Amino acid sequence: MEKRRPKTEKYVLEYEGQVDAAYIRVGSGRVQDTIEVSRGVLLDGGNRQRVIGIEILEFSKTKVNLNGILSRVLTNIAVSR
Fold first, then answer.
1. Which residues, 6 or more positions from 46, have their beta carbon under 8 angstroms from its beta carbon?
2. Is 41 in contact with 69 (CB distance < 8 Å)?
3. How far apart are CA 65 and CA 81, in angstroms?
4. Cα separation of 81 and 66, whole Å?
């Protein structure tokens, strides 16, 4: 019997140097709401309260734990599915 691999998701990290902002796209769809979860960290949400992206302002000046943010967001995505 052949083992199935778990479905992997692709995440896109973009950085805009002129405004010093990073954006991590973790889903697809139209942004319907944006909330600031901590100073300079914004979550873009779509329908059904799914996270579409994470924006980090003043990225070069921020000591943001990307692994921590992504693990929390992805856990919430998995729970909401």
1. 27, 28, 29, 30, 31, 32, 52
2. yes
3. 25
4. 22
Q: Which two tokens stand for residue 9?
A: 């998701």
Q: Are 40 and 62 in contact (CB under 8 A)?
A: yes
Blockwise average pLDDT, block size 10, the chain, 81 residues: 62 91 90 90 87 91 74 57 46
pTM: 0.68
Three-state SS annotation for 10-54: CCEEEEECCCCEEEEECCCCCCCEEEEEECCEEEEECHHHCEEEE
